[in-house]
Write a structure and sequence with these properties.
Number of helices: 7
Strand order of the largest sheet: 2-5-1-6
Helix content: 55-70%
Radius of gyration: 20 Å
Number of domains: 1
Largest sheet: 4 strands, mixed
Structural class: alpha+beta
Oligomer: single chain
Number of strands: 6
Strand content: 15-25%
Length: 211
């Protein structure tokens, strides 16, 4: 009986150690990825076809302006600085777009940290987590979201496919460790398992933060 108890204790300690190691790994990796990414989050007024279409028009005009003011940005910090200093311009673009389309919705803009689910962009997958982002809420903001990554390459973006170009992937690769870049770009079985571990713990973190 004593031997069995010792064996059971060793199993519990091993599982606890494994849990701590997995949590530490997930926290470190997700933090480094989030530190090198800045995202855009647009929320439509509602899920009607008209409001969803309006959201996409706002998106296109916002992205066009981003290309004008930040095409040469080389770091996340620089991107955040430019975006923050042009919030009034973003607001005016969104409002003008909405008014020109015949709607009277207001717009709310904020730069901060927000919860994001796991999202795939071509052959890159960003795990769920808390990311820095520009959030644009249209009207009641009760409709479906639209996401992209403003940095690297400021919404890198082929809006029709949502895929990263090679330059954007290069920026990510330069700023992440080999392990971290492999996690978001490699689809081998062992890497997918690690991705699921990160995703699991980040979803727990998000759920606890929203309690």
């Amino acid at each position: 009986m004593r031997l069995f108890k010792r064996f059971l204790l060793l199993i519990v300690l091993f599982l606890f150690y494994t849990f701590i190691c997995a949590f530490s790994y997930a926290s470190s990796v997700s933090s480094d990825i989030a530190d090198n990414v800045f995202r855009l989050h647009i929320i439509a007024n509602s899920d009607t076809d008209e409001d969803q279409n309006l959201k996409l028009i706002v998106r296109d005009n916002i992205l066009n302006y981003m290309k004008e003011i930040a095409s040469s940005v080389s770091s996340k910090e620089e991107a955040v600085e430019i975006i923050t200093s042009h919030l009034d311009d973003f607001y005016n673009i969104a409002i003008d777009t909405i008014r020109n389309a015949g709607y009277d919705y207001d717009v709310s803009l904020s730069v901060g940290q927000f919860d994001f689910p796991t999202k795939e962009y071509g052959d890159i997958s960003l795990p769920a987590g808390i990311y820095d982002a520009l959030r644009i809420e249209i009207g009641e903001a009760q409709g479906h979201n639209w996401w992209c990554v403003m940095f690297p390459t400021l919404c890198f973006v082929d809006v029709s496919s949502g895929s990263l170009d090679e330059g954007s992937k290069g920026v990510l690769e330069d700023n992440l460790s080999d392990e971290e870049f492999s996690l978001i770009s490699d689809d081998s079985a062992d890497v997918k398992f690690k991705f699921k571990v990160v995703e699991f713990f980040e979803n727990i973190k998000i759920s606890l933060a929203n309690i």
